[in-house]
Amino acid sequence: MLSAAGSGGLTASIYNRMVVDMEATITMPDVTTERADDVFGALADATRRDILARTMGRELAVSELAACYPMSFAAVQKHVAVLERAGLVRKRADGRRRVVTTDMDGLRRAQVVLDHFESLWRGRVERMHGLIDEERSASAIAAPNRQEHV
Amino acid sequence: MSTIDITKDLENATLTVTSVFEASPERVWQLWSDPRQLERWWGPSPYPATVVDHDLRPGGRVSYYMTSPEGDKHHGYWRVLDVTPPHRLVLEDGFADEDGQPDADLPTNTTIVTVEAIDDTGTRMTIEGVYSTSEAFEQVLGMGVTEGIRIAVSQIDAVLADG
Questions:
Q1: CB A118 to CB B8 under 8 A?
Q2: What 3-state class would DSSP assign to B93?
Q3: Least CB–CB distance from B139: residue in A4, A18, A124
Q4: Shortest Cα distance, chain A CAs vs residue B40, angstroms
Q5: Does ipTM come in above 0.85?
Q6: Which residues of chain A neighbour B42 with C-beta distances below 8 Å?
Q7: What is the rounded CA–CA span in Å between residue B79 and residue B91?
Q8: In chain B, where does DSSP find H-type helix?
Q9: pLDDT for A59-115, tens place per residue?
């Protein structure tokens, strides 16, 4: 699955080292990433996003979902299968119906990925503000202490 | 404290960061165009960045490395796709090997930076990161690098909060 981790061996190992350095002081949160690829592939389709929205917090039969879209039952079933494989929905038998509901944990896994980049950029923009604020303070010769923001 | 708005679009694997600076667009642009300033914000504090080459023209290359506390160097690069000083910069950001050459096997991100004056004293900077392939996410997460950076950033935030 992680094909590039092998072929990009050297760099990957450097970065692993970098993370090991960090881990020495801080425990990594449990992050499941196995299905990240499936998750974003599943979310890339408008019908599947709509299925997720409809089944959030409630159970709908595949047949009920199929009635919502101008496509065959089989096509909708296929979309549900993609979502299920990505861990974004759960399917179970309810008598003769097969009902579908959003798996909130699956959605959260996708969220975690973007959270990493959010933190990275938040730190960068904070440092940008730090640079500009520092310059403003330095230019305020009459007032050596940092002035309040206007 | 400065305000930083961040929007995450899960469906499109896109992150949008917006912040207003009390400075001119030209000054904000320097954060990107001056390699010495770039070095001061790009890398998280335990991994300071050193910019080796900095050619901010279309097709140009910026190469840099980040140095670990032990002195190990981690290389990266930007490929400049579009640039209109001081308002717009589009770049591809990726990993590089020890010679600074792009590593084609590792994921790249596309980053679109927009800098615009909102009034006489303020400038809005918008950074849109498109994490194009989900496979890229997986690889980076597999290496754990973003987690390492995330931890580093939260440490910085703690330091800033104390200050």
A1: yes
A2: strand
A3: A4
A4: 7
A5: no
A6: 124
A7: 5
A8: 25-33, 35-38, 134-143, 145-162
A9: 999 999 999 999 999 999 999 999 998 888 999 999 989 999 988 777 766 666 677
